[in-house]
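S1.2 Input.
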Amino acid sequence: MEDLFRDTRLARLLDYWRGKRGNRQAPARRNIRPMELGPLIPIVHLIDVHQDPLGFCHRLVGAEIVDRVGRDVTGKWVDETLYGPATTEVFDGLAAVAWEIRPYRRLARLDWHDRPWLAMESLEMPLLDEDGRVNMILRGASHFTVGADWGVARRMSWPIAA
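S1.3 Output.
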């Protein structure tokens, strides 16, 4: 499992999510306990999922993410103001997690942001409300430096077997 990710903390976060899921499609938000996440907290990002119309709002952004990206988006919506030309890709990626109720791994270059030398690996996992609908996404994100010759497409994503 750990070799699936560049950063082994993401593998630990996936193991935590799977452990909380039990025999359900995804764990409930109430099953996630920040105190249990310990050293993973700096890379944790919680995103609220709103329905009718579908929208995503950043609830909590870990300190390491804020430091690496250079901004805190807590309380802000996923829209063009935040993500510019990458808005559709970011929105559609979160929508896939919510609609499919499955985790995704992503690699992306932050060339849309003011740090084009920065890339991100993330893990996005659904959390359910009492009615079994996705109402939040638990996301872990790790950032690393890349050169202009980075041999990976600008953005890639893979569903992960739950």
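S1.4 Remarks. The longest helix spans residues 8-21.
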